[in-house]
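Weekly puzzle thread! Below is a chain. First person to post its structure in C-alpha cell form gets bragging rights.
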Amino acid sequence: MKRLACLSVVVGCLLAGQFLALPARAADTTSNVTVHNRSDWDIHELYLSPTSEEEWGPDQLDEDVLSSGGSVTLTNVPCNVWDVMVVDEDGDECVIEQVELCAHEATWSLTNDELLSCEDETSDE
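Winning reply:
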C-alpha cells in the first residue's frame, strides 16, 4: 500500500511539473536575433515582414547603420518565417524571402551573394 501511495505522489509531481512548464514554453515565442553584415556594403535600413503579409514593419535600424563587417541584435522578434528588406548605402533595395528566425538566440548573416542576386533580379526586369 505504501508503494502505491509513493508511486501516486511521484506521478502527481511529474504531471504537475509538466503543467507548470507549459506557460514557460508558450511564452518563449520571441527571439533575440543577431544580424551579421558579411557583405561589402553598409546597410542603412532593415525591414521585416512575415512572409504571409504584404506590409513591412518599421525600420529595425532606426537611425543606425549596419556597417560592412558589423552586427546588430534585434530583440523580441516573434518566431516566424520572415521576408527581409534591406536598403544599402546607394539606396538599392533587396528583399530576401523566407528567412526563418526562431530560436532563443538566433543569428542571420547577410552576404554579398544575397545582395548581388537582388541586383541580378532587377537587371532582368
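Puzzle host: Confirmed. Bonus trivia for everyone else. The two ends are 80 Å apart (CA to CA).
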